[in-house]
Amino acid sequence: MPYSINVNGAVREVDVDADTPMLWVLRDVVGLTGTKYGCGVAMCGACTIHVDGKARRACFTPVSNVGSAQIRTIETLHETAVGQALQRAWRELDVVQCGYCQSGQLMSAAALLEANPRPSDDDIDMVMAGNICRCGTYGRIRAGIHLAARYLNESTTGSGQ
Amino acid sequence: MMCRSILVMIAALGTSVTLAADLRPVSTFKKISNRTERSAALFTEAARVLEHPRCLNCHPADRTPTQGDDLHPHNPPIRADEEGHGPPGLPCNTCHQVQNTPTNVTPIESIPGHAHWMLAPPSMSWQGLTTRQICEQVKDPARNGKRTLEKIHEHLALDTLVGWAWNPGAGRAAAPGTQKAFGELIAAWIATGAACPADRPADR
Amino acid sequence: MSAGNPTGLSRREFLAVSLAAGGGMLIGFPLAGRTQTPTPLPAPSAFIRIDRSGRVTLILPYVEMGQGSYTAQAQILAEELEVALDAVTLQAAPAAQVYASPILGEQITGGSFSLRGAWATMRLAAAAARTMLIDTAAQRWRVRAASCRAENGRVIHSGGRSFSYGELADDAARRPVPAAPTLKAVDAFRVVGQPRKRLDSPAKINGTALFGIDMRPDGVLHAMVQACPVLGGRLVSVDPAPAMSVKGVRQVVKIDDAVAVVADHTWAALKGLRALSPQWDEGANRNLTTADMVAAADAALARTGLVFTNTGDVAKAEASAARRFEATYRMPMLAHAAMEPLTCTVKVADGRCDVWVGSQVVGRAHKAAAEAAGLPPDSVSVHNQYLGGAFGRRLETDYVSQAVLIAKQVKSPLKVTWSREEDMQHDYFRFHNHSLVSVAVDSTGQPQSWRHRVVAPNIMARWFPGFQKDGIDLDAVDAAAGPYDIPNVVVEFTRNEAPAGVNTGNWRGVGPTRNVFVVESAIDELAHAAGRDPLAYRQALMSKAPRARAALELAGRESQWGTALPARTGRGVAVFEAFGSHLAMVAQVNVSRTGHARVERVVCAVDTGIAVNPDIVRAQIEGGVIYGVSAVLYGRVTMDKGRVQQRNFDTYPVVRMNEAPKIDVYIVPSTAEPGGVGEPGTSGVIAAVVNAVYAATGKRLRTLPIDPAQLRNA
Asked: What is the third-level CATH fold of C291-333+429-711?
């Protein structure tokens, strides 16, 4: 049946079965391919998106569950302060290798920083353990989250002066 | 005796376990004349649900849930806070939807889900406890969420998250019996004094 | 290395300079290796184009799969041509024989060859272009070329006037090619040796980078595929009706060994596939188990193999030995499990076939597509995309052939995607590898002879027949004796193939990954048996491997080798030479009472010659280490009844962030030509971890992966 969903600020009509995961709605129907398929069973985090600002594994989020929620994908992560800080840190530390998992890594990292602006190594490990990277960029992801947190903290204290 | 003979085979990582599919009804226990013994026997029967993997997996010994009929650690790794949710940035509902969700692949046929998907609080850790110890925990307001026995019955008999154990999604064996039959056992257990069974010799 | 011509070649033998189509200068050159320069030199396989606006395009036959090759290659060009790095655009070459690598004879990205292939000749080509641009400007100004210099994409006269390269390119293309262009001296490098930012990062952090799986030609439909779950089996029949009743499903397609469901979107295809009940002819492997394959490899250990190395007199040394050390090492079957499952998009229409894919072997993908399509190669185009990891899996073209065979039967363009489960079950696996090591030891514990029987499939016989010698897979025996002063050495290769239908292939670190585990485990055992410190024992045996020894000493210092550690924690070392690089690693591992090994830290010292981009060198070693740690802790593919038992990351676990060790990479300064760094991180860490487990627990594990049951309370 047709669903009206709000993706990156635009309303989209999609005509798919109720159980169709947002991953395939985004990639195959809407045409936003930044969100990746990795495992299909919520085991790797490559498909992470934000639903009303919270991380969700899109491979497991049926279109019928999202209703009128605001969906954000990697394509508009830069519109948030946290997203910008993370992308800047990712560039600064050259985190990526093959890059396939990085959309999901960034979306998970953004949800982490929104919920916990000053995460410890352990806080980062607990959240980011949900995202697999086979190129082995974990050390740089961890450093990138710390660096992004610092950028955000600097901009906050800077504007307050 | 009711349908004790109905058995289901559940494949669990190459090993098979055999679980009885039904609960014995309350009437089965009327022949136990001693009220306390009858109460303990009723709890022992109800504990076949409480000690079922569908329940134990979210009542782990530490703050890490387990999975499967072999109670292996949750993968991906996760650790819940005192309230029973994942760490900030990775709540349970990052993956667990408001309902069971099919994958269309094997062997992970579905991801379990419920609107209130969460881990039991630390006071309600059951893994590693004997049936007697679980029974005492369930009765103890300091460790059962300050519930009266009446509230315990209501929780076990009617709560839909408890009820998930009988509707666990494709690829998972349900807890024995039905929530209704389970609720009747709990009611009868309370009505007979809520006695706890003694530890079996092997448990001591 | 000094300025000059390191290849020993004159430019006339290989440089082809011409006016580019649309104006500007086009310089073609082959990607000849430093040690394997073939004669006569082949036609150009890479091109530098300088257009009239001054933009520089580097067309390379290599693919970007995360290894940072594009960035490092561009740095070499920017350095020698004297342009800014951001003025260089990388363009992947389409599939065509002209782009074949002269080292490998075809378009292959693998074996850590990319940078090694480009180094010498690309510098020379860029230096020639720079000289021609300077000469052109000097002629226009009527001044001596020596009074002009190239800088940041311009030729500047000592008086201050200047031309951009774009203004000079047309005329420069018509000039004679200089006989011996002067290369920049290493100490004048400004771009090479700098940790420049990767060129592919921006698109990979905002969702715009396009991988094979992201292709959406107009009208594309989506297919999911299932091959016979018993490896090597065939499809007998399938009733399409249950799939056709799923909303969005368009078609069920049968091929010889698989069934595919074509739909409007991937989920409908997956649901449709799930609804089917295909009848399979399970074939010869219907009863195959891992135990069968392990037993076959063990039986092969008893067979004398083909002799690869035979120096000194091993039999004599063995006869006079004070003691013999003998051990068997066993490595399991492994999957690649790249994050992007295999996928290929195909459009077959109007007598043409277009293929969009991420492949390490673009030329082979082209050939495979043409064969499957039944079209002449000229009617087939392969459009290579970013690879979402490869690790050797995308050196095969089975998924390309399969996608074309399916798409041929479909009217619309078609994207065929493998589920994670399909990707894991139908891999070209790293096969069971066993080794028998026998060492004659003198009374002081020094090795007098080294005998290593390598039991492995001959992958090269299928995959690259040129990389064999007398029936020996030269990769399988690579690094099989170690960098040590042992006077008498025999290395044998005993071929042990997988049963037909079980596909085997290359896996990150290839031969050295298997052999460094064996050699460095055995040397560790010898050191402990001799009562010596394992690092010092190695060091004393490395007079002929000064670069590796220097790396060993550096890794030892940086890891605080020899200092005290907490209980059940140990350090293990591995040192080796492979892929033109020289490495040492020290792993620090803690083993819990329950037998769980935790790799806490890995220190790696690497001498890879000139580190063209030291940050990419570090990243590659870090990534290789993580890949290897996954293998040593968890990696194992098992079979029962001919079916692979692992399906997803629950049953084939890989290291996650909470288990990722701290990794410190130290680069040994060097002016030698660059070596490869994509593979050796994986090759070294497995032995270092196993040796650390021994140091922590006293348990010597000779079978991979680590078995926690053996370490419980050890």
From this structure: Aldehyde Oxidoreductase; domain 4 (3.30.365)
